[in-house]
Amino acid sequence: MSPTHTDVTTGAADLAPCGGSDHPDCGIRDVLDRVGDKWSVLVIVELANGARRFRQLQRAIDGISQRMLTLTVRRLERDGLVLRTVYPTVPAQVDYRLTETGASLTHLVRALADWSLEHRDTIARARRAYDSEHPGNEIR
User: Fold this and answer.
1) pTM for this structure?
2) Where are the beta strands (DSSP E) in 49-92?
3) Burial (CB count within 10 angstroms: exposed 0-12, middle 13-18, buried 19+), residue 15
C-alpha cells in the first residue's frame, strides 16, 4: 500500500471468533483478559514510573484492596510482565517493577489513559443522555 493510499476499508477485520483451539485469536483473548482488566492497567501505569513496594502501589491505586492487589501483581508476574524482587532483610522487603515485556506495554497503556482523559466528558454526557432516554435501565 502506498503512503498516499486513500481507499476506505469498509468490511470488518478478518478474525475468526474465539472459542476453539483452531481459532488464531484465542491467544489474543487470553492476553487481553490479563492486560485489559482495570487493576492490571493501573498497576502497569504506576510501575511505569519505576519500582514500587506493595504499600506504595496500594496507596497509589485508589480503591484497590490488599487481596486484589496481591492477585493482580501475582498474575502480572506469572505472565512475565512484572518482576517481584525480595531483598534479604529483616523484615523482608519486596518491590515490583516492570519487566522488559511489561515496559513495552506502557506506551499502549498511556495512550489508552490519554484517550480516556480526552473523551471522559463526552462519554459521561452520552451516558447521561442514554440514561435519561431509558429510565430504569441504567447500566453500571
Assistant:
1) 0.70
2) 52-53, 82-87
3) exposed
* Distance in angstroms (rounded) separating the CA atoms of residues 59 and 66: 10
**Alpha-carbon separation of residue 96 from 11, 52, 53, 80 (angstroms):** 43, 5, 6, 12
Task: Tell me the pLDDT tens digit for each residue of 87-96.
Answer: 999 998 999 9
- What are the pLDDT digits (tens) for 59-104? 999 999 999 999 999 999 999 999 999 999 999 899 999 999 999 9
Give the Cα separation of 133 and 48 in Å (integer): 41
Whether 96 and 46 have beta carbons less than 8 Å apart is answered as no
